[in-house]
Amino acid sequence: MSAPVTRVHISFILFLIAISIAGMVHVVRAQNLTDTLRLKEFEVKSNYSTDNSCFKRVKIDSVILINHQNTDLSNILSQYSAIFIKSYGNGGLATPSFRGTTAQHTQVEWNGINLNSPMLGQVDLSQIPVSQFDGLEILYGSAGIARTSGAFGGVINLVTNPDWNNRLNILAMQSLASFSTFTSNVNVAAGSSSFQSHTKFNYSSATNDFPYYNDYLKETIHQQNASFALFGMSEELFWKLKDRHLFSLKVRYNQNDQNLPPTVTDYNLDHLEKQNTKDLFAVLEYKLVGKKYNLVVKSAFADQRMQYRLDSSINAVHQYYQWISKVRFSYNGIRGLSIRPGIDFTYDQVISDDYDGMKTRSTTSFFTEVNYMAGQRVKTSLVIREDLIDAKFLPIVPALGVEYFPWKNQDLSFSVNLARNYRYPTLNDLFWTVSGNPDLKPETNYSVEGGFTLYHKSNDRKFRFDLTLTGYYSWIYNMITWSPASGNSNLWQPENIDQIHARGLEAGLNFNWKVLNFDLSLDNNFNFCHSTYQKASSAYDQKIGKQLIYIPVNTLNSTFSAARWKFYLNYNFCYVSDRYTAKDNLSVMPGYILSNIILGKNISLRNFILSLQLEIRNLMDLDYQSIANRPMPGRNYAVTLKFSMPKLNRQ
Amino acid sequence: MITNHPNVKEKNTPIYNLLTLFSLLALTIFSDSCSKTPIREKTVVPPDTTHTVSYANGIFVVNEGNFNWANASVTFIDNSSNTLIQDIFRKSNNRILGDVAESMKIADNLGYLVINNSNRIEVVSLADFKSVSTINGLDSPRFLEIVDSTKAYVTNLRSDVSIINLKTNTVSGSIKTNGWTENLIRYNKYMLVTSIGMFSDPSAQRRAQILVIDTQTDAIVDSIQTGKEPIGLVIDKKQKVWVLCSGGYDNFEAPSLIRINPELRMIEKTFTFADPTLVPSRLCINPTGDTMYFLRNGVCRMPVSAAALPSQPMIGPEGRLLYGLAIHPSTGHIYVSDAKDYVQNGTVYQYDTYGTLVKSYTAGRIPGSFCFTKSSNK
């Protein structure tokens, strides 16, 4: 009983500490403050990307990240991106499905370091707090080949960057939400024009005992065994020498104690199912910036531990280490041409209670990206990647893209790309005790994609919009699926059995108006994805041509935002169509619409900004389930108080 | 201020068309969603053709459902009207069953559905399949066997045999064992219970045995050592007990079929299967007690008098994932299920005693076991 109380205390203590630090600093530095408070300039969300090299990349607006500092990555992606998130509910496992693929086909990177577990091959997006990164970029389909192999769906790239103009910036946030959810963040960024330090703390806990209508009991009860306590901290140091040398060290630690809730029918259990994770990532980076070339050398270390407990019967610990080294070079000496070769080296080591002894894997990737702009109209991009796994070469992974600009100003572009990609099995696929299958082949993917982007800004810059329309077709062969072994139906084994065809259409339409001093915007993402099983396991198998389970055919998310008088309003609407729960598509979760609303006010108090934000989630109080028989909360609320000392910028 | 941008509007009419399309789409979806129907899993089942449902004469197919998906169900093959009714528990009770419906047993006019992962037994009236009671307080229950009109035993994953009071439908006691108990069968006043060992132990450390429980005193009076993972148990016409051992989840040793003399409590015969990766399961016996059946790369048949294990299955798998097996208690017909890939509806096949296909039936998710009504006669 004392645990939640303690968590609340910790939250408040962190918050108080932050305020007092900020207060002290304020006293010391007060004379340096100018009268005008300068907020960080907001970057506007745009599907139109200046860095587009024939492949689709979308950046998520930093305003969205700022308004969602009290939540995790899975919420941002389900509300503001084209990626479908399969979620077990508030704080529970949340995995991405990108372009009709499975969670293992989306790679999540933090400052260029892959966060996907080498054991499972996927990431739990609920474990990544929004406060831990400054920028979020989504690389669609073959755009990911420039970063890694195996991401058939795409890559989610989280970045943290220094602001060399910053002298001191403090942010402290305390959020209180329904179901005893407390979230505290403290970020301190300080430095000079050549040195910056960013320190971040976050703590979040919830009893998560939301009421829901239990279909088995036919009465409303509270969710059980769903509490969590997540703590994270990071320290990032950036050092710049003569505008040519850039050093950085980033260290990030996260831990989570999480209870795993039962299904609706298993409400009466006094059962214990827990997961405890501890992750440490460290990245050391050196960047040399020349006139015609850049060099990046990066070395990273990851230490991750996961403990799973189920009553008294299972208590398994999985410990894994990763050493990652990357060298990237880029040469821009010839007009219109850029060449970027690189080598990545990854060494995985796993000690798991479910493996027979320690298992290791080393992966070396060689790759080159060549971009060529012929005149003002045509841009071509070629990426070639070759992976060497434990001294065995995989086939070449190539991606070729062409982009055409019919107008002089590049506001309209058409692009098309083709790629082949491979994903090698996860360590669980290979080494899980008894079940692991060392004979697995890598999965193969062929994809083709085409689309256009149109960008427009009115002459007075008060109105702008962008429109992106993309169609893709993707063929996945030898997909690894765990299924009952032939000859022993009690033994499940991974095998290269499935063949998947995923095709779809993505439309993004974003508007931004400045009218009567109102700042209005409307962002829409529409997705159609028909991803089907193409190979039957027997003549009696009914799955051919059927949609993959838990992947909706249509999704739409729309966000309307307005700002005026330092008030801000954000209304988000998400539609998810039916998701099948059987491969023969004979059982289905009906589609639903969720809406969320945020209303906030930034109050300038002398030298601080105090932001008060109110949030209503599941506004319509929809009684829904995202995954069958896993309850989700009804209408719920969050109040967030944010205290920020604005940047003391260089005068 | 909007008038500031007339040029924008004129220049990009296709965009505005698209915007209109978007808004229309949004509007459609919105109007669609304002209903307050809870979002729950729906199963597409063919409409029932029977107008009067009777569970007097037929076969209950117990569909296990996926672990932690809460989607177990019961399909009824109605022999009197020659129809098939899906998902009868949900239809009669307007609620779901939970998951991993392991087995069903009939006593008097009640059906006992053992739901393993949901840790309970649902007691239903056989007249209408409506819930009569729910037995809680079990720990991963596996199988139920009736002792007498007042008492039943239930095997559990975690080291005991639960005693059920059939009058109150509660757990009235527990017989401690030193491992997970799996199958059970009555022999005179004794209950023979297979015990696999501790769930958390590797195969080498698991003690596989048959426990002999005196049903009058609820005490373990003896035990018989067997091969790893004794999972199947039948009694033949000569009152000999046959035990099928899978050899361990990790193919620890070769699977075996053992014959036990229950009077002497000794092993009389051991047949060892040649290929340890082909694991036998679902040991059954025909109504006359002279022929055994089990699954091993198809349906295998073995007379109790045979000198060796069958070399070939009588019914081949033909690409199917054969999962459940039962022999009709009066006709001797073979009922075998195809669980497919476990993530879609399974199929039940009915073969006659010669192995000729009689009929096939669509079932629910992972059809694993069968329960025949008392007057089941087809």
SSE topology sketch:
The complex is a heterodimer of chains A (651) and B (378).
Chain A: H1 2-29, E1 57-60, H2 62-67, H3 73-80, E2 84-87, E3 94-97, E4 106-110, E5 113-114, E6 135-140, E7 154-159, E8 168-177, E9 181-191, E10 195-206, E11 211-214, E12 219-222, E13 228-241, E14 245-259, E15 273-289, E16 293-310, E17 314-331, E18 337-352, E19 359-374, E20 378-389, E21 392-393, E22 397-404, E23 412-423, H4 427-431, E24 443-457, E25 463-485, E26 488-515, E27 518-533, E28 554-564, E29 567-576, E30 579-580, E31 587-589, E32 592-605, E33 608-617, E34 636-645
Parallel strand pairs in A: 4-7
Antiparallel strand pairs in A: 1-6, 2-3, 4-5, 6-7, 8-9, 8-34, 9-10, 10-13, 11-12, 13-14, 14-15, 15-16, 16-17, 17-18, 18-19, 19-20, 20-21, 20-22, 22-23, 23-24, 24-25, 25-26, 26-27, 27-28, 28-29, 29-32, 30-31, 32-33, 33-34
Chain B: H1 6-11, H2 13-33, E1 42-43, E2 58-63, E3 73-78, E4 83-85, H3 88-93, E5 101-107, E6 110-115, E7 120-125, E8 131-135, E9 141-148, E10 151-156, E11 160-165, E12 170-176, E13 180-187, E14 190-197, E15 209-214, E16 219-225, E17 230-235, E18 241-245, E19 256-261, E20 266-272, E21 281-285, E22 291-295, E23 299-303, E24 322-327, E25 334-338, E26 345-351, E27 357-365, E28 367-372
Antiparallel strand pairs in B: 2-3, 2-28, 3-4, 5-6, 6-7, 7-8, 9-10, 10-11, 11-12, 13-14, 14-15, 15-16, 17-18, 18-19, 19-20, 21-22, 22-23, 24-25, 25-26, 26-27
Q: Overall pLDDT of chain B, averaged?
A: 88
Total strands of chain A: the figure is: 34
**Low-confidence runs of at least 5 consecutive residues of chain B:** 1-12
* Share in helix of chain B: under 10%
Approximate strand percentage of chain A: over 45%
The computed structural class of chain A is: mainly beta
Uncertain regions of chain A: pLDDT < 50 for 5+ in a row?
1-51
Distance between the termini of chain A: 52 Å
- Cα-based radius of gyration of chain A, to the nearest Å: 25 Å
